[in-house]
Description:
alpha+beta
Amino acid sequence: MSDTAQLIHAFPKNPLEEIRVSLTEFKKKQYIDLRVYYKGDDGEYHPSKKGITVSLDLFPDLVEAIEKARELVGE
């Protein structure tokens, strides 16, 4: 999907997967991509179909949802 991608943050989901948050651009429009990457047989991480891509217009709504979830879990 991505014409360009800038990794913002990555963290392990489990020993064979990690979650990556990236700023991507597709057809001159920017998106935030949250994607699960899996470790392949070659030892490298590869993107899976598991994830979401959110336009920057919807990014404030995503942040609000994460903040509400944070409040519920007591962080």
